[in-house]
Amino acid sequence: MSLTAQVRVARDGFVLDVDLNVGAGETVAVLGPNGAGKTTLLRALAGLVAIDGRVELDGDVLDDSTSKRHVPTERRRVGLVFQDHVLFPHMTVLDNVAFGLKRDGRRVAREWLDHAGLGDRANAMPRELSGGQAQRVALIRTLATEPRLLLLDEPLSALDVSIRAEVRRDLSRQLAGFRGVRILVTHDPLEAIALADRLVVLEHGKVVQSGSPAEVTARPRSRFVADLAGVNLLRGRGRGDHVELENGTGVAAPEAGDGDVFAVIHPRAVALYTSRPEGTPRNVWRGRAEDLDLQGERVRVRLSGTVPLVAEVTPSAVRELHLDAGAEVWVAVKATEVSVYPA
Predict the structure, then answer these.
(1) Calpha distance 313→159 (Å, rounded)
(2) How many Å apart are CA 280 and CA 262, to the nearest integer?
(3) Which terminus of the chain, N or C, has fewer Cβ atoms within 10 Å?
(4) What CATH number matches the domain at 230-342, 2.40.50.100, 3.30.70.580, 1.10.150.120, 2.170.120.12?
(5) What is the DSSP code (8-state) at residue 77?
(6) 3-state SS class at 214
(7) What is the reported pTM?
(8) Which residues contact 251 (CB under 8 A, 6 or more apart)?
(9) CATH class entry, domain 3-87+129-227
């Protein structure tokens, strides 16, 4: 089972232009900022949006604008799961899962619920379910129809943080047993990394980066991906032993190369001082702490200045440096902590 799609959609001044290939047994997570075109892509693959292009699923052509072929949604064997789970409120859980099953519907639905550990909720009404249970029932209802293509649009975003991890684990198990093509849209990097074999990053309707979670986060190619990976991303010209930023500032880095490059600095590699550090660190700038954000046992400090960066320090360092919003500091980064690659 595989999917090959060239999807072009133009509407209201927005253009979605995406080529996508998903192999058998692969889960692809589509990420991007709001308005990037993620949901439009899912709707196009489901046949709910007219496209200029071609969609082929396991050898069957579902869309081809050249030959005017368009297979209606109900004939595509496509399963869609949305963030609000949309269960039928007047039906029991069992009847919800049985809906759409042609043969032995209630028996098959009961087997699916028992397998998922929800057999004891078969006669419950949707209003009696927790958010996590409702989302699991919605997924089971979709999987029970044995779709060839499973499309999940922000399936966990409506859930409380307290139950999201549990439902994510259940979703991971369900996806592992699904033989069709799996595409997940999410804005949550943890969700994408936990569930997907490959990430596809959309921005302004185009794919800006694709690869395994490790590949994408190791070499971000946009501010969105850098934020997702939790690193600082700079862009400039490689000048041999340094990167020259647009404002003319040089960032020392071994083997910076020549030409347009990205430079990545991990926040933990950014050291802060109350006075200019002694020794000969090659990257030293003045900075101003704009805001501080406590995350677990670390504090992320957003710095403005010649080279805007985010530093990650301990709470004790915050106290020792008397750090608060507006504090002036010296910023130092070892040249060997700057990772450079072609843009």
Answers:
(1) 31
(2) 24
(3) C
(4) 2.40.50.100
(5) T
(6) helix
(7) 0.84
(8) 234, 236, 242, 243, 244, 245, 263, 283, 307, 333, 338
(9) alpha beta
Percent of the chain with pLDDT over 90: 72
Q: Which of 307, 301, 297 is nearest to 327 (CA)?
A: 301
The Cα–Cα gap between 85 and 21 comes to: 27
- Run of H or E residues at 171: helix 161-176
Encoding tokens for residue 269? 């590699």
The HSE-up count of residue 252 (CA atoms within 13 Å, CB side) is 11
Sign of torsion over alpha carbons 251, 256, 258, 259 = negative
Least confident of 54-63, 162-171, 286-295: 162-171
Evaluate if residue 164 carries a pLDDT over 90.
no
From residue 12, alpha-carbon distances to 36, 41, 46, 53 in Å are 14, 15, 21, 19
Q: How far apart are CA 153 and CA 27, in angstroms?
A: 13
Q: Which amino acid is at 130?
A: S
Encoding tokens for residue 207?
A: 């794919």
